[in-house]
Structures are given as structure tokens and as C-alpha cells.
Write a structure and sequence with these properties.
Blueprint (H helix, E strand, L loop, with lengths): L1 H57 L2 H10 L15 H16 L5 H10 L2
């Protein structure tokens, strides 16, 4: 009878230890989850600040003027719109393409081109 009481106490203590270990594991998992959520919250707050700044910029008069000029092609009273022909655009693009060939030139030739205006 005494041995049965000792075995019962041992089983009870093992059960308590298992319960304690599970509680500790749960506590560790909760802490790691809380730190993950805090990091996510900080990232979302930073994104919210960026979006607030962007919203403020989009609602500003400067942005509205930029959109009106660039996308809607509107002008202020007294201004004149100048439209460049496509040929000038092609000339500018060919100069950019020529700059790619200069990468293989020696440095002194690059400087010469800058000084001469090529």
C-alpha cells in the first residue's frame, strides 16, 4: 500500500512537471509571437507615415498644378505651350545611343569630346 502511494505521488509530480513544461513552451511561443507582432506593427506604422506624406503631397496645390500641366496639358492664363517636333526627340535619342559607344573609347578621347562639344 505504501508503494502504491509513492507511485501515485511520483505520477502526480511527473504530471505537474509535464504541465509546467507545456506552460513554459506556451509562454515562450507567446513572447516570440508578441515580438513578431510588434515588428509588424512598427513596419505598418512606417508604411502609414509614408502613405500620409504621399497623401499630403497628392492633395497639395503643387501636385495638382503638375498633374494639370503634364497630364491634362493645361496652362495658366498668358502662357504659351510649345510642342517640339518628333524629329528633335529622335536627335536626342541618337545622341544618347552614341554615348554608349563612347564607353569603349579611351579616357582622353572622352574628355576631348566634352571639351569640343561632340
Amino acid at each position: 500500500m505504501r508503494k502504491a502511494g509513492i507511485y501515485l505521488i511520483i505520477v502526480f509530480q511527473v504530471g505537474l512537471m509535464v504541465s509546467l513544461i507545456k506552460g513554459l513552451q506556451l509562454s515562450i511561443q507567446s513572447r516570440s509571437r508578441a515580438s513578431d507582432l510588434a515588428l509588424a506593427r512598427d513596419a505598418l506604422l512606417a508604411e502609414k507615415q509614408e502613405l500620409d506624406k504621399r497623401l499630403e503631397y497628392v492633395q497639395s496645390p503643387e501636385y495638382l498644378e503638375k498633374v494639370a500641366r503634364d497630364e491634362l496639358h493645361l496652362t495658366k492664363p498668358g502662357e504659351t505651350v510649345v510642342i517640339l517636333p518628333d524629329q528633335l526627340r529622335l536627335v536626342a535619342e541618337t545622341k544618347v545611343d552614341e554615348g554608349v559607344d563612347r564607353a569603349s573609347q579611351p579616357n582622353y578621347l572622352k574628355w576631348w569630346g566634352v571639351l569640343v562639344g561632340e
